[in-house]
Amino acid sequence: MGDNIARNKFANASSFVYPYAPAKAVDGTLTPLGRWLGSSPLPPEPTPPSPVWLSVDLGAFYWVNRWVVKHMGLIGWSSNYNLIDYKLQGSLDNANWFDLDSVTNNSANQTDRPVAPRKTRWVRVYVTKGLRCNTNFASIVDLEIYAADPTNPYLSNLVLSNSLVLNPPFSQTINAYTSNAGYDLSSITITPTVVDSNATIKVNGVACASGQPSAPVSLNAGVNNPIPVEVYPAIGEVNTYTVNVTRASSPYLSGLLIVGKGASLTPTFNRATYAYTSSVANTKTTAQIQATAEAGGSITVNGVAVQSGQPSQAIDLQVGANLVTVICTAAVGSDFKKYEITITRAAT
């Protein structure tokens, strides 16, 4: 059941009739003198009396899930001295209030009701219709408030699609991760699994079933893509894991040619074609390659760095087949593409 978290906490009220101060409603004393008694100004007929209220500062934030109001009828008075219409309200700032539960046309000597767990620090009983014998007055012998313990907000596993690796390796108490994706991977899914089956999950703001892949999450090229994975426990605060996926910038070439006349590529250059051939005369003893990076990537020709769009070093050509390797590495990320040109120099 837990402890009554309202016991002896600071209590306040819209009004009270001396000596029935607000504090007497939370001291645990069940006597006619150990109660709060409040009143509203008598309005002109036929206007109903103004609401009166009793509030308690719980001293910390709790997930309230039960309240108990002990009325005058519980200590021997007529049930006509019980409250009629009233609400339990909560607040995070003692200024803005939200309803937790509501009772109408009460005649019972004690209210003991569960409520859907909700985070609050201040609670109040807001009375819109007071004692049955005189609705301008409200009285509470004792107010009890109970709270639920937060449930498990952790993941037991977190897996990225396309064999992407989490760094560091997943641990349920580590909330921040990084991962690297190649340029060709424009979206991924994430499969999170909760420890508590009553918890729910959102991946990038979209609901996701535990143990199932999320909806695809698009990745922007050449930048860090933070993807939140939110775990909503049945009771308690949301727990957010974040996976920062860096998708590489383009590692493709936008142009590739052999400098000078008399040498052309077969097939015609295409960014996604990686193997080419070319035939040159015996008199051509060297060749230069001009490669252009699509998105600012770095280029090497036979292992030698070359500026994008500029001719490479002179490459000696032997009679027969000569393999030239051109590698373009993405400016962001570690993705790369390797292009190969086989240049055949004629024997005579």
CATH homologous superfamily classification of the largest domain:
Galactose-binding domain-like
- At CATH's second level, what is the architecture of the largest domain? Sandwich
Mean pLDDT: 96
Strand content: over 45%
**How much helicity do the residues have?**
under 10%
Number of continuous helical runs: 0
> What is the approximate shape?
rod-shaped
The fold-level CATH name of the largest domain is Jelly Rolls
SS content category:
mainly beta
Number of strands: 26
CATH class of the largest domain: Mainly Beta
Oligomeric description of these chains: single chain
How does the major sheet shape up?
Answer: 6 strands, antiparallel
Distance between the termini: 98 Å
N-to-C order of helices and strands: EEEEEEEEEEEEEEEEEEEEEEEEEE
